[in-house]
Amino acid sequence: MHLLFVCTGNTCRSPLAEAIARQQASRLGIAIDVSSAGVSAWDGAPASDGALLVGIERGLELAAHHSRTLTTELVAQASLVLAMGPQHRDRVDALGGSGKSWLLHDFALGKNTGGGVSDPFGSDLATYRATADELERLVARALDRIRTERSSDAN
């Protein structure tokens, strides 16, 4: 399975979600490929300073992150696409992801909330920490759902 997280610039939310998912999946023994992209990303930009600092605090690997623009190819390669906001999901769907794209909130909570993860870009470290806390909770629930659905499919 290949999980793709999508936000705007691919420097804050989606790289944090990617690193959190990779860390949590490793701890849980879930075999999954994880990546991220942005609907308006400049290819090659590093993770934002706030994301890097929060990542260091939490033992997340973000130093090697380089942003990339969401493309039709990236959407096609993904088994599941989790978007940070409705506009991101709309773009994923426009690139052929309809049927495998969700808002992260909706997928994690198992219901249509329409909610998005707020963008910490340009904010203080406390805001980045709050975003990371939210992402940790949502990603944990999303991985739990993936694991549950995989075991149901295997039976």
Description:
The protein has one domain: Rossmann fold (3-Layer(aba) Sandwich), CATH 3.40.50. The chain is 52% helix and 12% strand. It contains six helices and four strands, in the order βαβααβαβαα. β1, α1 and β2 form a beta-alpha-beta unit. It is of the alpha/beta class and 155 residues long. α1 crosses α6 and α2 packs across α6. The protein has a four-stranded parallel beta sheet with strand order 2-1-3-4, sandwiched between helices.
Percentage of β-strand residues? 5-15%
Give the integer mean of the pLDDT values: 96
CATH-scheme architecture: 3-Layer(aba) Sandwich
Largest sheet data: 4 strands, parallel
Which regions are unreliable across 5 or more consecutive residues at pLDDT < 50?
Answer: none
The name of the CATH topology is Rossmann fold
Taken in chain order, the helices and strands follow as EHEHHEHEHH
Structural class: alpha/beta
Helix content bin = 40-55%
**CATH top level label:** Alpha Beta
Instruction: Tell me the number of structural domains.
Output: 1
Supply Rg: 14 Å
CATH homology superfamily: Response regulator
Shape: globular
Q: What's the β-strand tally?
A: 4
N- and C-termini, Cα separation: 18 Å
How are the strands ordered across the major sheet?
Answer: 2-1-3-4
What attributes characterize this protein structure?
12% strand; alpha/beta; 155 residues; globular; Rossmann fold; four-stranded parallel β-sheet
